[in-house]
Amino acid sequence: MLRPKQRPANIVSRDPERTRQRILAAALKEFAVRGFAGARVGAIARRARINKRMLYHYFQDKNGLFRSVLRHKINERMRRAEEMAVDPKLVSSLPQWFRQNCQDADWVRLLAWESLQSVRDSVLDEKERRRLARQVAEVIRKKQEAGRLRGDVPPHFVQLAKISLTMLPVALPQLARLIVGCSPRNRKFQEEYGRFLETISVGFRPSIVVVK
Amino acid sequence: MLRPKQRPANIVSRDPERTRQRILAAALKEFAVRGFAGARVGAIARRARINKRMLYHYFQDKNGLFRSVLRHKINERMRRAEEMAVDPKLVSSLPQWFRQNCQDADWVRLLAWESLQSVRDSVLDEKERRRLARQVAEVIRKKQEAGRLRGDVPPHFVQLAKISLTMLPVALPQLARLIVGCSPRNRKFQEEYGRFLETISVGFRPSIVVVK
DNA sequence: CTAGTTTGTAACCAAAAAGTTACTTGGAAA
DNA sequence: TTTCCAAGTAACTTTTTGGTTACAAACTAG
Fold this sequence. Notes:
2 copies of one chain form a homodimer. With 212 residues, the first copy, chain A, is mainly α. Chain A has 2 domains: 16-70, Homeodomain-like (Arc Repressor Mutant, subunit A); 91-204, Tetracycline Repressor, domain 2 (Orthogonal Bundle). Chain A has helices at 16-38, 41-48, 52-58, 62-86, 94-103, 105-117, 126-145, 155-171, 173-180, 187-200; one strand at residues 208-210. The first copy, chain A, starts with 15 loop residues before the first helix and ends with a strand. Chains A and B meet through helix 1, helix 6, helix 7, helix 8 and helix 9 of A and helix 1, helix 6, helix 7, helix 8 and helix 9 of B. Strand 1 (208-210) of chain A pairs antiparallel with strand 1 (208-210) of chain B, so a sheet runs across the interface. The first copy, chain A, binds a DNA duplex (30 and 30 nucleotides) through residues 5, 7, 13-16, 19, 40-42, 50-54, 56-57, 61-62.
């Protein structure tokens, strides 16, 4: 009678969903920091404060875990992309992309690791991700049509340039630090670089006249 | 008397310098493809067609080999940078930087791996590399003074932007492929993207008037 | 010629890391 | 209450991989 059948919400001894999420979160952090080859399943287990065995209970193996983490994040991004497609006001400019990347640095780094390590073999869930990319490209095309972006360049190149400018300092902070002198995680850097991107973005706007 | 003391130049059974170079070249390739954690010393030895033991004869260990490879490439870059500093005509534009990176993709990828893996700890030969970076920044500053580049932005941000735009498609080809649809190693892509960079670079030029 | 040093090989070892076995515990349904 | 399965643990095995030892062959100084 001390223990009611309905278990109290605060004292939980077993909770599969929580455990699963914990492993996913821990794996994201570990993979983001060390990459796939550098990551240690033992370290992930420790970080998630679960037994290594459970990791193999919820996921096939190290590889499967990596793919699950990726999928999880991809789905998250898909949802966000759909929200943005609905509300065109949310379509972001260069500094906004940059801020977003700074916020989700783990995802950016995961992407970088994945792209770096899969030189020959194709990438996970290629089809869906291509669709996501095309979706973004479509938004850019519409902006070009509306005259808010120069129309004499291919949309996907604009997209690639945007990603390059906003992702590299987040993905490769050490490299960025060699150049600018301070860590890209520095708040002041982020603000200043954001403003810089704003300034630079005239290169993407239409009808420019260069006065000698 | 069949074997003269002076060994014939064409039949060489032992050649330390060649072996060393071979190991370095093989290690560069392996590290560029798989990164430090993913690289296998056995694979490097096989690639170099030497015995694994020799690798430890010429270099301390896997770590030492990685640093040697990096140093080797850094020196190469230093020399090139000095040449460029002498002849201001060689100071390169965005498309030229991009082409250079395409040519030396292994170096670009090595840089990316290094930066990605060393999140907390500092980077190798930080002092010299900072000097190299400042050297490049100085060239940019001079261009600004000469009025060939807009002067209202910090030189090192311009440098960071240039590196981002010209390095990312080479360092992360899979990611770029998701966006543009074809491999960045594709010759046609390289030409088109080079032209695109040329177009975009008006954003870096001074005295721009945006006509509504 | 020969003794000693350098360059090279094959086989081996130890540590680390992935993955597994055998067992226990919690709790919900019968 | 009892039964049974999912959730959990500790300790173990296997595989991988960085690093080493013991030995042989080539070259070089004396």
